[in-house]
Write a structure and sequence with these properties.
heterodimer, A: 340 residues, alpha/beta, six-stranded mixed sheet, disordered N terminus, B: mainly alpha, two-stranded antiparallel ribbon
Chain lengths: 340, 545
Amino acid sequence: MRNAPGTCVREPTAAQLSGCAKEGMGGNVRVFFATDIHGSEVCWRKFLNAAAFYKADLVVLGGDVTGKVMVPIVAHAGYWQAVVRGETIRMETRAELEEVEKQIRNKGSYPAIVTPDELTELSGTEGAVDRRFSAEMIRSLDRWLDMADGKLRGGDIPCVLNGGNDDIWEIDDIIEASPCVSFGEGKALDLDGFSLVSMGWTNPTPWDTFREAPEDELKKKIDAVVGQIPDLERAIFNFHAPPYGTGLDEAPALDANLRPTHGGAVMKAVGSTAVRDAINSYQPMLSVHGHIHESRGIKKMGRTLAINPGSVYGDGVLQGAVLELNPKKGKVTKYLLVNG
Amino acid sequence: MATDAIGGETPTLFLRKATGLVRGWSVRDSMIYAVLATNVVTLGIYEFSFQSFIPKGQLITSILVSGVWVSFLVIAYAGLIVTIPRAGGDYVWQSRILGSGLGFVMAATGWWFILWLWAPIYGNILSVELFQPLWATLGDPSGATWFATKTGIFVVSVITIALAGVLVSLGMAGYARIQKWCFYAGLVGFAVIVILLLINSKANFISSFNTEAHKIFGVSNAYGKTNALAVKNGYVSPAFGFTPIGASMLLIPMMMFYLLWPNWGSTLYGEIRGASDFKRVFAGMFSGLWITVILSVIFLLVVAKTFGNAFYNNANALYWTAFYSGGKVSSPIPIWPYPVMFAGWLVHNTVFQAVLILLMALWFIGWVGTLFLSSTRVIFAAAFDRVLPDRAAEVSEKRKVPFYSLILMLAPAVIVSAVYAYNLTFETYTLDATLVIAVTYLFSAIAVVLLPWVKPDLWRASPASRIKVLGVPLVPLAGVVTIGLLGYNLYEWLTNSAYGVNNHDSLYFMGGMYVLAIVVYVIARIVRSRQGIDLGLINKEIPVE
């Protein structure tokens, strides 16, 4: 186990992975990879159960952990009220409130309980929504990490989390501080013979999100992290952006108003050329991606198996990839895309 | 971080700026695709010509009843789209709700294998709606009739397949732009025909028809002869009207040939935000369906006014009688009685007539490029699910051509086209192409009815669950009505010989597709199992607690 220089993180230890190469699997290691759950609590719970369900030795969440939507629940005297999926819902008991909060969280949104005055202030004060959004995201992530402690047997099951381009910066420190998950960004994690390198940055999008950089900068970031890998034949790239033009990066073409053109029938490659070039030149055994939810797929790029399991977090379905890796051969021996 | 508030002065939702929060595609786009899919010119007018197989049936009645009935299918599909959006349509809905094996078999047969038959059907339609009338108009009637020969139909089918294959290879970007122009220009052509038929009397038409038929085919009094020969061969056209209802209901299984497809874009919808998306998704498909229904009724009304209802039906009946007579019966007009060509004859100008035919061919051009689009998606999805070999989803690095999936689509389509063209009986299986997709729809309709029970959490979270009529959720109710629609049609197709479907060879042909899909799936399960891969895991839900 080797930490990246200058970092102090709880990474999966060699001891944790020492039992992974099970005899029945021919010494293979089974990995479950999912990505882009965007605040969906039902998907997070499924992710935590995935190790047991798929008999995985290691679980990896590839980025875009946080949600995009906040639903205000207005607290009135004796009841709460919210508009969920276009329908006004009145809750008169704490149990009803909790049920609605659960529904909102399961869709990947954040319930925010506010008074009528707070709601007015939220919509009228510059930056107030952003601050509340951040607070809800952080509160939610804290809850999630508490859940993880129990599900991952206090860290016995190695779990790597990473940020994605949509994730606020504040989550990095929270994940770093968790005792049962490892934060992957910018590091080469040594997983009992494999090196997992992670990067949540993407090439620029029309939404100007947090972790975006031009292709030449992405190349520098990739080269920096790949430079830490001792054996590229046993390297796993966990880059949020999919490689450009590989079919793993096809999103509906959009017009200037961000509306899909031509009825959504026209797809466009929107992945990263820096990621594509890195895969082609470094040829890791495996490269896992996310970012483009609708581009679920598998692509062989030379000796590299590149995968984007896609995401349908809004349906409460956890799309992922179950991968079996052979440390001796340095190759992926089995893979299956699943809709858990 | 930038955020948007939704809900006016009292916001009900805050959205932060994040990847993929795109606006849904517009109702207009959705409507255009639904109009092109339920293509009144390419598919509708072609199918109207088979009215004589249910001789007492009234087309307008059957179209209106079909429109109402298919509207429930639109509601059911809108419900599925907003519940499990952007996920691949029937394949994913059925796989998740009813099981992986059934999902694969229904998707493979309904969106892949049966497209092999749609290829020659489209080829035949291109022959009768473009090449035959164009060659005739340009003064080459023997050239026109060549396109109606076995070899002619096969050649045009291969052209159609090549065209659709090239468009799949090039991608949809350029074609999508063409499609819209085809739609608008096609509407202009349609309007020209309606105006022509409105401003001309029946007497004008008879005179023009006889003049042009004599000029092109050397036949005198073609109008009268057509009517007389149809009657002589046992056909009696119903008087223009709306009854009898019973016989008109029997035309519905034919009308499904064009009216069953307003949900074509169901795999293309983006992220769903809330209940308003149900309305938008529904509105696009529903308005597309009813524009087609209205255009159909307008077309039949102006044809009845100017051509004469009896003549229109007689011309169609006589053509098919001659076609299947093996040369014993001949029609004064030796090619398919294309109403567009007849309407053009009202203007005695060859250039105008040719331009009108070309303009109306845009209805075909605007849609044919999507022939193999669904097949590509199913093949790729099946390969990613490890049911097909990985190679099936490979795309060449240099040319970006999905070479192996193209082979899986095009090679069988060419073979089926040859059989279709050279085996007279096979052409009567045209409605097999509708039947097999209807079976796929049937299982999606069953899925939508079962959804609240099989996936209660998913259903409760869906905007579709909020839409109720008298307290009853509308979407599952619409699913029940859709099952009724598809069940009725399947019953009629399989029991009534008028549709050309319920004979042994046709049933073997369709049954063979289901057997092939089942065999592919079973082999995949066995092979993958030997490789240590359990395909049963693909749609198995991870426990939440």
